[in-house]
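The instructor's notes for this session suggest beginning with a concrete chain rather than abstract definitions. Hand out the sequence below and ask the class to guess, before any prediction is shown, which regions might be ordered.
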Amino acid sequence: MKILFKLSILTAFVAVFSACKKDSNQLQLQGHDQNQMMGIMHATMAKMDTLKMTKDPDNDFALMMRIHHQGAIDMANLELQSGTDATMKQMAQSIITAQQAEIAQLTSFLKSHPAHGNDPDFDMQQMMDMQKGMKQADLQIINGRIDHDFAILMIGHHQTATENARLELLKGSESAMKTMAQSIIDSQTKEISQFQDWLLANGNK
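After discussion, reveal the predicted structure:
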């Protein structure tokens, strides 16, 4: 009797699953190892893992954000190349323009500001934030459709950046980096909301 009951449950599950497969709006998945956006995120994380920290919060914020920004630019370039949605392509171009300019500012700061701080706790928290963001990305539902994957993964990417920026506001001392940190919080919080609105309107497309 128990076996028949279990078989009935399994048959019902298969029937529901098969019916869902016929629905064009069903939740679709793609393996993370096959996903181009995830490939960029993993490559970015690998670069951050090898970053030699200085224990100076301002310098390490600049060093980490420079790599993190480049990851966003690489994802945005993929959206421009392979995406089809006009809104997402427009946001991608905006991200490229803004973050290329910030990378130039970060590089200029690093050239003119020798590391002199000693705050290993900042480095540890900064890396923990990045690793947490990567774990969250690995849990995201992605479907191989560039516009959808760009939007959903950039939300987490931006959230990690804002967490690091808040840490810089708390621990940093240089006005240039604190000003940039606040700018990152303001602009990327707004973009997170825009990505969320697009996903709510477009679903699993």
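Then share the key points. Residues 1-27 have pLDDT under 50 and may be disordered. The chain has seven helices and no strands.
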